[in-house]
From TrEMBL, chain A:
It comes from Tissierella pigra. Its cofactor is pyridoxal 5'-phosphate. One of its GO terms (molecular function) is cysteine desulfurase activity. Belongs to the class-V pyridoxal-phosphate-dependent aminotransferase family. NifS/IscS subfamily. Keywords: Iron, Iron-sulfur, Metal-binding, Pyridoxal phosphate. This is Cysteine desulfurase. Gene3D superfamilies: 1.10.260.50, Aspartate Aminotransferase, domain 1, Type I PLP-dependent aspartate aminotransferase-like (Major domain). Residues 2-366 form the Aminotransferase class V domain. The keyword Amino-acid biosynthesis does not apply. It holds the Pfam family Aminotran_5. PROSITE patterns: AA_TRANSFER_CLASS_5.
UniProtKB/TrEMBL annotation, chain B:
Residues 59-165 form the THUMP domain. CDD domains: PPase_ThiI, THUMP_ThiI. It comes from Tissierella pigra. Its EC number is 2.8.1.4. This is Probable tRNA sulfurtransferase. ATP binds at residues 183-184, 208-209, 265, 287, 296. HAMAP family: ThiI (MF_00021). Belongs to the ThiI family.
Length: 384, 388
C-alpha cells in the first residue's frame, strides 16, 4: 500500500498505539474519580498537555483538548463572537477556508453579522492590501487558515498579525492550524495569535481528539455546559485514550519533525520533477517554491476525471484524494480550486497528493509509473 | 381461549388441482421468514393457514409475513371450540381488547360458516353476537355500512374470532413460477421491476453491470444495498457483477459515438442471456418503461430485444415514473435509489444518442467488434455475490 492521502488522515505511530493500548486496558480510570486510578489518569492528561505546550512553546494552561479540528474551530470562533458581539459584528476570513469555518460564517451572515471573505491569487495567497482595506473599528475577529488543505498554500500569518494589530488592536486573531500543526513554521507568542486550532489525526495521532490554544489573556465562555472539565471550557469526561495518544504523537514529533520535514521537502520536489518529465498536459495547482507546504501537492491532469484516476490508483493500492467528486447529480466542485481561478475541466481533473515521513522515493517512482499508464489509458477514451 | 395467527390466501384459492402445490410453497416461504422468531406449528384449515406461536411475537411475525408473496391478510385470532358459549365469551374478549387499543363507536359482526354442520346459520349467529355485544358495551352501536371495526367469526373445524386484518402484498408464492434474472442498476426502476415479478412467484437472481475504475466501488455497494432490501421480499439473491469497461472501450474505439448506449445495452442483454442459460433461468427482467430514456423507445427496445432469444419481462413498461416511485417508496428501495453516487461513467454517454435505431445498422456496427470473445471475457471475470 502506498498512502498519499495524509491530509485526510494519517497512520498512527507505533509508539502512539502502544501507549493507547495500555491506557485502554490498564490505566483507564476517570480523571475526575478521587481514587488512585483516577489520579493516575489525571496525571497522564497533565503530561500529554505538557508535551503539546512544550512543542508549541506556550503555557500548559493555554492548551485545551477538544474532539478535533472542527470543534476547535467552532469553539474559537463562536466563543470569541459571543464575547465580542456587543463591540462589533464584522468578521474577516478567506474564501478558501475549511467547511468547519465557512459554514459558521454562512450561519452568522443570517444573524446580522457582516463577513468579509478575502480572495486569493492563483497560488492561493490572500492579499495583505485587501486585508488592510477591510479591517474596521467593528472588526472583532480575523480567522485564517494557516495551511490550505487542498492546495497547501501557507498564509503569511506573522505579517497578517502585524496588519491586524496596527489597524485595530482589539481584533482577535484565530488561526486554523489543522494542516499546519507540526508541519510548517509557527510561533504562537511572537505572532500574537489569540486562538489556534489543531488536530490529532493529521500528525499520526488518533482520530476524535483535537487541541485548542487560547492565549491566557483571554477568558472565553463555553458552548457546552457540564462537569467543568478542561477548566470549564469544554465539559464532558475526557477522551483519556485519545489525549494520551495525542500527547505521545506530539512528543515523538517534537524529536523528529525537523528531520521529517526536510525529508518530505525532498520527496515533494522529486515527485513534482518526475511527474513533470513523465506526464504531459498537467498543471501544478500548488506553488513549487518554498512558500507552500512540503506535505501537499495538487495537480490537474488534462482530459482526465480526477475520480476515475483515483480509482485506477486505488486498484494498485495507491491512495490519494480528489477535491471534486462526480455524482449522479452532476459534479461537486471544490470552492478552493474555483477561488484560485481554475476552470471546470481543471477542477474535475485534479488530484491531491499528501506525503508523510513514511513515504519513500521507491513509492513515488511506482506511483508515477502507475499514474502515467492510467492517465494514458483514460485519455485514450476521453480524448477520442 | 388460545391466540393464533391466521393467514388468508388470495389467488391461490382459485388454483383448483394445483392448489396444494402453491399452499405448500407458501408455507415453506412463511417458515423461512419466521423460523428464527420461533413458532409451535403451522397448519391448514379449510382455506386458511394458521400459526401457533407466542402472542408477544405476533407483531414481529406479522411484519415479516406481510412481505411474503401469496398472502392477502394476516389476523391475530382467538381460537376456540365450536361451542356457542365459548364463541360468546371470545367475542366479548375480542371487542374488549379492541376498545382497549383504540376508540371505536360502531361495529359489525361478520360470520363465515365454512362448516355447514354448525347448527346456527351465519346471519343468525351474527345477530345473536351483535345483540350480546350491545348488551355488554353500552357505548357501542351497530353500523352495517361503515363500522369502525368488524368482528369476524369463522366457523370451521375450530372457531376463530378476530377484529384485525393486516394487508399483505397478495400475488403468488415465490418459487411457484420459475426463475428470472433481473438486470439491476442503482436506479429507481429495476428494483421495482424485480419486486413486481417476484410477486408473481418468480424466483429472482440479479446481474449488475459496472465500469470500474470508471465507476466506484461505492456505487456497487449501493446496488448491493438495493439487493439487500429486495431480498427482504425475495429471500437469498445470487447477484452476478460484471465489468463492462473493456466492452465500452472497444465500442468507443470502433463504433459510432451515438450508438454507444444501444450497443452496450445489447451486450448487457447477451451476457444476461448467457448467465440465464447456464443457470437454468427462464426469463430476463428489466426496469424498462416505454419512452423513459433514449434507449427505451419502442425502436430501441426492439433492437435490444433482438439480442436474446429468452423472454424479457418488462413489468414497468406501461407505468409512469410517478407510479414507479410510489411502489419504490412502498417497498423501501426509493431512499437508497436516490442516494447520490459517484458516476463518472458519463464519459461514455453519447451527447445525442440514437432514439430510433435500426436493427440492420446496429448489426452492422457490431461487425466491427469481436462480440463473442468480449462476452466470454466479461463472463469469465464476473463475480458472484450472495445477498441474504
Amino acid at each position: 500500500m502506498i498512502y498519499l492521502d495524509n491530509c485526510a488522515t494519517t497512520r498512527l505511530r507505533k509508539e502512539v498505539v502502544e501507549i493507547m493500548q495500555r491506557s485502554m486496558i490498564e490505566d483507564f480510570g476517570n480523571p475526575s474519580s478521587l481514587h488512585r486510578l483516577g489520579m493516575k489518569s489525571e496525571q497522564k492528561i497533565k503530561s500529554a498537555r505538557e508535551h503539546i505546550a512544550n512543542f508549541l512553546n506556550v503555557d500548559k494552561n493555554e492548551i485545551y483538548f477538544t474532539s478535533g479540528g472542527t470543534e476547535s474551530n467552532n469553539i474559537s470562533i463562536q466563543s470569541i463572537t459571543n464575547k465580542l458581539k456587543k463591540r462589533g459584528n464584522h468578521i474577516i476570513t478567506t474564501k478558501i477556508e475549511h467547511p468547519s469555518v465557512l459554514n459558521i460564517m454562512k450561519n452568522y451572515e443570517q444573524q446580522d453579522f457582516n463577513v468579509t471573505y478575502l480572495s486569493v491569487d492563483t497560488q492561493g495567497y490572500i492579499s495583505l492590501e485587501e486585508l488592510k482595506d477591510n479591517i474596521r473599528n467593528d472588526t472583532i475577529l480575523v480567522s485564517i487558515m494557516h495551511v490550505n488543505n487542498e492546495i497547501g498554500s501557507v498564509q503569511p500569518v506573522s505579517k497578517i498579525k502585524d496588519i491586524i494589530k496596527k489597524i485595530n488592536p482589539n481584533t482577535l486573531f484565530h488561526v486554523d492550524g489543522i494542516q499546519g500543526f507540526g508541519k510548517v513554521e509557527l510561533d504562537l507568542k511572537k505572532w500574537e495569535i489569540d486562538c489556534y486550532s489543531f488536530s490529532g489525526h493529521k500528525i499520526h495521532g488518533p482520530k476524535g481528539i483535537g487541541g485548542l490554544f487560547i492565549d491566557k489573556k483571554h477568558s472565553l465562555l463555553p458552548l457546552v455546559f457540564g462537569g467543568n472539565q478542561e477548566r470549564g471550557l469544554r465539559s464532558g469526561t475526557e477522551n483519556l485514550t485519545g489525549i494520551i495518544g495525542f500527547g505521545e504523537a506530539v512528543r515523538v514529533m517534537n524529536e523528529s519533525h525537523k528531520i521529517e520535514s526536510n525529508y518530505v521537502i525532498e520527496l515533494k520536489e522529486y515527485f513534482a520533477r518526475k511527474i513533470e518529465t513523465e506526464i504531459p498536459y498537467i498543471k501544478f495547482n500548488t506553488s513549487l517554491d518554498k512558500n507552500s507546504s512540503p506535505y501537499i501537492i495538487n495537480i490537474s491532469f488534462k482530459h482526465v476525471r480526477g475520480e476515475i484516476l483515483l480509482h485506477y490508483l486505488e486498484n494498485k493500492e495507491i491512495y490519494v484524494s480528489t477535491t471534486s467528486a462526480c455524482s449522479s447529480k452532476g459534479t461537486e466542485k471544490s470552492h478552493v480550486l474555483k477561488s484560485i481561478g481554475l476552470g471546470n475541466e481543471e477542477i474535475e481533473g485534479s488530484i491531491r497528493f499528501c506525503f508523510s515521513y513514511e513515504n519513500t522515493i521507491e513509492d513515488l517512482d511506482y506511483t508515477v509509473k502507475v499514474l502515467k499508464e492510467s492517465v494514458e489509458d483514460i485519455r485514450q477514451i476521453t480524448m477520442r | 381461549m388460545e391466540k393464533v395467527l391466521s393467514v388468508s390466501l388470495g389467488e391461490i384459492a382459485l388454483k383448483g388441482l394445483n392448489r396444494k402445490y402453491f399452499e405448500d410453497q407458501l408455507i415453506k416461504n412463511m417458515r423461512r421468514v419466521i423460523k428464527d422468531i420461533g413458532f409451535e406449528k403451522i397448519y391448514k384449515e379449510q382455506g386458511k393457514i394458521y400459526i401457533e406461536a407466542e402472542e408477544h411475537n405476533f407483531p414481529k411475525m406479522i411484519n415479516r409475513l406481510k412481505k411474503v408473496f401469496g398472502l392477502v391478510y394476516i389476523s391475530p385470532c382467538i381460537r376456540i371450540e365450536k361451542d356457542e358459549e365459548q364463541i360468546k365469551e371470545a367475542s366479548i374478549a375480542a371487542i374488549r381488547e379492541k376498545i382497549d387499543k383504540e376508540k371505536i363507536n360502531t361495529f359489525k359482526v361478520d360470520t363465515n360458516r365454512a362448516d355447514k354442520n354448525f347448527p346456527i346459520k351465519s346471519p343468525e349467529l351474527s345477530r345473536q353476537i351483535g345483540g350480546l355485544i350491545l348488551q355488554n358495551f353500552k357505548e357501542l352501536e351497530v353500523d352495517v355500512h361503515n363500522p369502525d371495526t368488524f368482528l369476524y367469526i369463522d366457523i370451521k373445524q375450530n372457531a376463530y374470532i378476530y377484529t384485525e386484518k393486516v394487508k399483505g402484498y397478495g400475488g403468488l408464492p415465490l418459487g411457484t413460477n420459475g426463475k428470472g434474472l433481473l438486470l439491476l442498476s442503482g436506479g429507481i426502476d429495476s428494483p421495482v421491476a424485480g419486486f413486481l415479478m417476484a410477486k408473481r412467484g418468480l424466483e429472482i437472481s440479479a446481474v449488475h453491470y459496472h465500469s470500474y475504475p470508471f465507476t466506484s466501488e461505492r456505487a456497487e455497494e449501493k446496488v448491493k444495498d438495493l439487493a439487500r432490501i429486495l431480498s427482504r421480499y425475495v429471500g437469498r439473491i445470487k447477484m452476478y457483477s460484471v465489468n463492462l469497461l473493456d466492452i465500452q472501450k472497444e465500442i468507443n474505439n470502433k463504433c459510432k459515438e451515438n450508438e454507444m448506449t444501444i450497443l452496450s445495452r445489447r451486450f448487457m442483454m447477451k451476457i444476461a442471456g448467457r448467465i440465464a442459460e447456464k443457470e437454468g433461468i427462464n426469463a430476463l427482467i428489466t426496469g424498462e418503461s416505454l419512452g423513459q430514456v433514449a434507449s427505451q423507445t419502442v425502436e430501441g427496445i426492439s433492437v435490444t430485444n433482438r439480442a436474446v432469444d429468452i423472454p424479457v419481462l418488462r413489468p414497468l413498461i406501461g407505468l409512469d415514473k410517478v407510479d414507479i416511485i410510489d411502489i419504490a417508496r412502498d417497498i423501501e428501495t426509493f431512499e437508497t435509489s436516490i442516494l447520490p453516487f459517484e458516476d463518472c461513467c458519463t464519459v461514455f454517454l453519447p451527447k445525442h444518442p440514437v432514439t430510433k435505431p435500426k436493427i440492420e445498422d446496429i448489426l452492422k456496427s457490431e461487425e466491427a467488434l469481436d462480440v463473442e470473445s468480449l462476452i466470454n471475457n466479461a463472463i469469465e471475470n464476473m463475480e458472484l455475490i450472495i445477498i441474504e
